[in-house]
Amino acid sequence: xxxxxxxxxxxxxxxxxxxxxxxxxxxxxxxxxxxxxxxxxxxxxxxxxxxxxxxxxxxxxxxxxxxxxxxxxxxxxxxxxxxxxxxxxxxxxxxxxxxxxxxxxxxxxxxxxxxxxxxxxxxxxxxxxxxxxxxxxxxxxxxxxxxxxxxxxxxxxxxxxxxxxxxxxxxxxxxxxxxxxxxxxxxxxxxxxxxxxxxxxxxxxxxxxxxxxxxxxxxxxxxxxxxxxxxxxxxxxxxxxxxxxxxxxxxxxxxxxxxxxxxxxxxxxxxxx
Length: 273
Known about the structure:
Elements: H1 3-18, H2 39-53, E1 69-71, H3 88-119, H4 122-126, H5 128-141, H6 148-156, H7 171-188, H8 199-216, E2 217-219, H9 230-238, H10 247-268
Parallel strand pairs: 1-2
Helix pairs in contact: 1-2, 1-10, 3-7, 7-8
């Protein structure tokens, strides 16, 4: 079975799964049109998809590192950067390319957020003795005083922005502060107290986040104007932007995107297929 044949089978499977014509849902299951493929054929198509997801690196020279975001040039997606009169097909292709770039950028940010969450309040664990002594004293006196909190916790961690804001503060730090406060309040008292954040801090966090993302981006020329070539699909797989806990969802998404790449290949004769 070829990649194109597998894409065709998975595309039909997607239509059936979503109840699209000619596989419309019916109150009577017996009236619903059946797939024109055997379970063995569908299984073989899925096997090909899985092999593709594992990454045939020889098909793509874009080695994606976990600390970078791969984007492709798409000047025709914007009137301010287009250097000629853009056709409908060009606009659609470059728009889809831009959407794919943003998907990778969001996946990159999601990994940063996950890493921050894994390290949250690490100074409470590493310096637990100091933390407990100040906690115990505060319970008895009603005041935190000085010690672990102001000498270690807010100095070494980044999410107490009102007490000590790092110069390179980003929106990731802001989100950690928000999640910290809301989770703590709901878990301890059943409600959270709305906090405030200096507008200057928010402005700086916004600007620093832009810089952080820009520094992580690597612009790589695309082999074709079609944004969803197999090369681009593989790059998305390697940076994790289409992976999830439900492998079925991954395969459905993969089928959609391979189907689009195959259609463009048949129409334009371009691409790596």
